[in-house]
Specification:
This protein is an all-alpha fold. The protein has six helices and no strands. Helix 1 runs antiparallel to helix 3 and helix 3 runs antiparallel to helix 4. The longest helix is centred in the middle third of the chain and has 28 residues. The protein starts with a helix and ends in a 20-residue tail after the last helix.
Length: 150
């Protein structure tokens, strides 16, 4: 592997994450979240995989990336629903359990890139619609920092 490719691999993704962070600080978490939601970090990885391992390997990795996004949507949905009734530890455990179960199920369902794309689109729409809404005018509170976990 040429040194230039290695340097690109080490620099491109962290720079893109840093840009998304700076955008969020400047224009708010909504804009930063939209920017971070774009495939800015996974796209360079896919390109590097295609160059080093070939297009077939990169296509398989793309299916895995899409299925991971669908499982992440399920994780967020479960976390958001459970957080209404439990603390952060219970919500985190439920979300992680949902993620693991989802990825185990989804990886058995499809190996097709088109099917994985359609599945992730549907999962994101369902998760967005099923997440609990924040009450209008609800007061936002700053997170508190605690030194102990338990």
């Amino acid at each position: 592997m040429p040194a230039g490719v290695l340097i690109l691999k080490l620099v491109v993704t962290p720079v893109l994450v840093a840009v998304a962070t700076l955008v969020a600080r400047r224009w708010g978490p909504g804009v930063g979240g939209w920017l971070a939601g774009f495939p800015l970090t996974s796209a360079p990885v896919s390109i590097f995989l295609a160059l080093e391992q070939g297009p077939a390997f990169a296509a398989g990795a793309a299916v895995g990336t899409l299925l991971g996004l669908a499982a992440l949507a399920v994780c967020c949905l479960v976390y958001g629903r459970v957080a209404r009734h439990m603390g952060w530890m219970g919500s985190t455990a439920a979300g992680l359990g949902a993620f693991v179960a989802s990825i185990a199920l989804l990886s058995r369902i499809t190996e097709s890139l088109v099917a994985a794309f359609l599945l992730v689109c549907a999962t994101l729409v369902v998760a967005a619609l099923a997440l609990p809404a924040t009450a209008v005018g609800a007061e936002r509170t700053a997170p508190t920092v605690r030194t102990r976990l338990f």
